[in-house]
Amino acid sequence: MSFDVPDDLRYRESHEWIDPETGRVGISEFAQDELGDVVFVELPGEGDAVDAGGEFGVVESIKAVSDLYAPVSGEVVGVNEALFDAPELVNDDPFGDGWMLELEFDEGDLDDLLSADEYADQIA
Amino acid sequence: MTLRNPPLREAHAERDAKFTEFGGWDMPVEFDSIRAEHAAVREAAGVFDVSHMGEIEVAGPDATALLNRLTTNDVTTLDPGDAQYAAITREDGVMLDDTVVYRLPDEERPSDGANGGAVDAGGDDAGEREGPEAVPAYLFIPNAGHDAEMHERWVDHRDEWGLDCEVRNVTEDWAMFAVQGPDAPDLVASAVDDGGPDVRDLSRFSATFAPFGGAECWVARTGYTGEDGFEVLCPWSAAEAVWALFADEATPCGLGARDTLRIEQGFLLSGQDFNPEDEPRTPYEADIGFAVDLDTEFVGRDALAAQAEAGVEETFVGIELLDRGVPRHGYDVTNEDGHVVGAVTSGTMSPSLDKPIALGYLPVDLTDPGTEVSVVVRGREKRAKVVSVPFE
């Protein structure tokens, strides 16, 4: 099975993505497929700080619990509260409506992340 | 550890199933979506490959006596084609396993004592018999990975008690499929070969042989989802043909959906909701006292009679989370004072009810429906209440 890996995003080995333009963060299509039906998402609040590589929340599917790791350090300036009532958006549209956070971050942190090609190789 | 493969391991892989280790077997956990598979069983029909379940055949003049000594229910009430749920307990009443016992059609045996190596009952009239005799035969279904242990237990007790019967571990002779859901009766009936019986006539907990795809199969109106349906045992060599009969019409389902379906019903999972090492429980504590007949002399009977007299201190209950979160196996349950009073043995987000539900053991004074408790989810107490099962 092949998975979508949008070119304009950067990725963490642990399957989170960040959009360098908007600061939005989510998990990859591959990750949501591995998890299966997502039933619960726990996220920080606006104004909270996250550290690159640190846990920022939890995503639970029917069969598994997974920690979420911040791709970069920054401040949470937006939270996708729609996921609290409709966690299945993570499955349905992981790069779109299934986004999780918006971060204000230092662009230099992006250098430590994978490009789309590198991430595609990792999950191949 | 090398995992045991069901006969259709590769066929499932070609359908892009995801796999999990279960009881030493490499089994499909999910074909597409646990939620969709769960819904198919509740609303239409799903088919599960449950070939990891064990099968032990017991046949011979003393087969009934052996089963009655090793299972908690009364096997003497079974006629050929009947099925019975039972627990298998050790001397102290703790459950080693739970099982379904099927009484098969009687077997024809030579009456000269040539009984395949079983202990000779020592009767001195063997030479007087003529022609074959009919002896009772049973098939029972240990849980995944328990077949060798149960086979050994049956053989050891047979020998210790000098009983005359054969005990055969036929786990890898039989594939097993569960076809479950409101559409299952018509679906399974239409899959029977021409000239075979109408399986819709089977009542709950009864079974018969029927031909599917040219193979003689044992089909029982049993299952573990709370829905109407059947379990079909077919020869390992015919598994692909028989599976295709069902999988073309019903939704292929993995063990993930089987788990959410049985949790919604409050059904026990061997090894998780009870096991002799980490969660030693008696049938009364596990709320399956209906499967215990104290009028029979089984291993563990005296301990259970004493417990029936004294009452249990803890029992198996349903718990519904009122706060957001998902209860999982091993999470603590606390009382209003914040003291740990139990633990979740099984939990999930119920796909049918769309709420978090759990099973576990609590002190009897906390088991009335509506009792407020908490489940500790990643260090945080989440409000919950005791509810009766099946969950609603």
Automatic annotation (TrEMBL), chain A:
<comment type="subunit">
    <text>The glycine cleavage system is composed of four proteins: P, T, L and H.</text>
</comment>
<dbReference type="InterPro" id="IPR000089">
    <property type="entry name" value="Biotin_lipoyl"/>
</dbReference>
<comment type="function">
    <text>The glycine cleavage system catalyzes the degradation of glycine. The H protein shuttles the methylamine group of glycine from the P protein to the T protein.</text>
</comment>
<feature type="domain" description="Lipoyl-binding">
    <location>
        <begin position="22"/>
        <end position="104"/>
    </location>
</feature>
<protein>
    <recommendedName>
        <fullName>Probable glycine cleavage system H protein</fullName>
    </recommendedName>
</protein>
<dbReference type="InterPro" id="IPR003016">
    <property type="entry name" value="2-oxoA_DH_lipoyl-BS"/>
</dbReference>
<feature type="modified residue" description="N6-lipoyllysine">
    <location>
        <position position="63"/>
    </location>
</feature>
<dbReference type="InterPro" id="IPR002930">
    <property type="entry name" value="GCV_H"/>
</dbReference>
<dbReference type="Pfam" id="PF01597">
    <property type="entry name" value="GCV_H"/>
</dbReference>
<dbReference type="InterPro" id="IPR011053">
    <property type="entry name" value="Single_hybrid_motif"/>
</dbReference>
<dbReference type="GO" id="GO:0019464">
    <property type="term" value="P:glycine decarboxylation via glycine cleavage system"/>
</dbReference>
<keyword id="KW-0450">Lipoyl</keyword>
<dbReference type="InterPro" id="IPR033753">
    <property type="entry name" value="GCV_H/Fam206"/>
</dbReference>
<comment type="similarity">
    <text>Belongs to the GcvH family.</text>
</comment>
<dbReference type="InterPro" id="IPR017453">
    <property type="entry name" value="GCV_H_sub"/>
</dbReference>
From TrEMBL, chain B:
<comment type="subunit">
    <text>The glycine cleavage system is composed of four proteins: P, T, L and H.</text>
</comment>
<protein>
    <recommendedName>
        <fullName>Probable aminomethyltransferase</fullName>
        <ecNumber>2.1.2.10</ecNumber>
    </recommendedName>
</protein>
<dbReference type="InterPro" id="IPR013977">
    <property type="entry name" value="GcvT_C"/>
</dbReference>
<feature type="region of interest" description="Disordered">
    <location>
        <begin position="105"/>
        <end position="131"/>
    </location>
</feature>
<comment type="similarity">
    <text>Belongs to the GcvT family.</text>
</comment>
<keyword id="KW-0032">Aminotransferase</keyword>
<dbReference type="Pfam" id="PF01571">
    <property type="entry name" value="GCV_T"/>
</dbReference>
<dbReference type="GO" id="GO:0019464">
    <property type="term" value="P:glycine decarboxylation via glycine cleavage system"/>
</dbReference>
<dbReference type="Pfam" id="PF08669">
    <property type="entry name" value="GCV_T_C"/>
</dbReference>
<dbReference type="InterPro" id="IPR006223">
    <property type="entry name" value="GcvT"/>
</dbReference>
<dbReference type="InterPro" id="IPR027266">
    <property type="entry name" value="TrmE/GcvT-like"/>
</dbReference>
<feature type="binding site">
    <location>
        <position position="231"/>
    </location>
    <ligand>
        <name>substrate</name>
    </ligand>
</feature>
<feature type="domain" description="Aminomethyltransferase C-terminal">
    <location>
        <begin position="316"/>
        <end position="391"/>
    </location>
</feature>
<feature type="domain" description="GCVT N-terminal">
    <location>
        <begin position="9"/>
        <end position="107"/>
    </location>
</feature>
<dbReference type="GO" id="GO:0008483">
    <property type="term" value="F:transaminase activity"/>
</dbReference>
<comment type="function">
    <text>The glycine cleavage system catalyzes the degradation of glycine.</text>
</comment>
<dbReference type="GO" id="GO:0004047">
    <property type="term" value="F:aminomethyltransferase activity"/>
</dbReference>
<feature type="domain" description="GCVT N-terminal">
    <location>
        <begin position="143"/>
        <end position="295"/>
    </location>
</feature>
<dbReference type="InterPro" id="IPR022903">
    <property type="entry name" value="GcvT_bac"/>
</dbReference>
<dbReference type="InterPro" id="IPR029043">
    <property type="entry name" value="GcvT/YgfZ_C"/>
</dbReference>
<dbReference type="InterPro" id="IPR028896">
    <property type="entry name" value="GcvT/YgfZ/DmdA"/>
</dbReference>
<keyword id="KW-0808">Transferase</keyword>
